[in-house]
Design brief:
Keywords: ATP-binding, DNA replication, DNA-binding, Hydrolase, Nucleotide-binding, Primosome. Helices cover 49% and strands 12% of the residues. The protein is α/β, with parallel strands linked by helices. It folds into two domains: 33 residues; 177 residues, P-loop containing nucleotide triphosphate hydrolases (Rossmann fold, 3-Layer(aba) Sandwich), CATH 3.40.50.300. Strands 2-3-4-1-5 form a five-stranded parallel sheet, with helices on both faces.
């Protein structure tokens, strides 16, 4: 070997250490790839829409103290999820970041091994009514059971639906089952506190207060017009 070239390894121990480090790096790479593939499969079943699949607490847009406050509270909720049975309600104007933070909570929990589901009231009721069909291979009870056993169920667009007694009964049953089994529920709505109470009733709202529950109000202007779809 020329005098100006030094060997990469001085001894057998250096070579062994290098091989072990390369093995560790390779294993971590495989784990990351497997985790990413698992994440995609889970996200496909989670109900998180494509626009929100990459939403995180880190890429939530902050322009004022109100947004900073809801971000901090939502992040704390996710981090403390295992320690309580708290639910949450995000209410306020359209386009103010409710779905972003709800999806960030969902994505965080998925990465930590939890099962989550986001469903709109319209899709929820459509699936419920679909169980009445003779061609359906799932009953209303089966569907209620599935909705009641995920670690976190988030119901979106509350107040957008045509108000009906059946919808109130179904939402009441879901919240009742989940709270009784110590499982958390999230709700997203453009309605304020009074509107939510009038729509769902005091019983549901009271159950949503169990534990150290969270009610965040998003009062600022919509920034949806600035979303291009490639921010995340």
């Amino acid at each position: 070997m020329p005098n100006n070239i030094k060997p990469k390894f001085e001894n057998d121990q250096d070579l062994l250490a290098w091989n072990q480090e390369q093995g560790r790096i390779s294993s971590e790479s495989i784990l990351r790839e497997n985790k990413a593939m698992k994440m995609q499969r889970v996200l496909g079943r989670s109900g998180i829409r494509e626009l929100y699949m990459n939403c995180s607490f880190e890429n939530y847009k902050i322009e004022h103290e109100g947004q900073r406050k809801v971000l901090k509270a939502a992040k704390r909720y996710a981090e403390e999820f295992n320690e309580n049975i708290a639910s949450f309600i995000f209410s306020g104007r359209p386009g103010t970041g409710k779905n972003h933070l709800a999806s960030a909570i969902g994505n965080y929990l998925i990465l930590h091994g939890k099962s989550i589901l986001i469903v709109t009231v319209a899709d929820l009721m459509s699936n419920m009514k679909g169980t009445f069909s003779g061609a359906s291979n799932i009953t209303e009870e089966n569907l209620l059971h599935n909705l009641s056993t995920v670690d976190l169920l988030m119901i979106d667009e509350i107040g957008m639906q045509t108000e009906s007694r059946y919808e109130k009964v179904i939402i009441n049953q879901i919240v009742d089952r989940r709270s009784s089994s110590k499982r958390s529920t999230g709700m997203l709505s453009n309605l304020d506190h009074k509107g939510m109470k009038n729509l769902l009733g005091e019983r549901v709202i009271d159950r949503m207060r169990l534990g150290n529950s969270l009610w965040l109000t998003f009062e600022w202007e919509s920034y949806r017009q600035y979303v291009k779809g490639d921010e995340y």
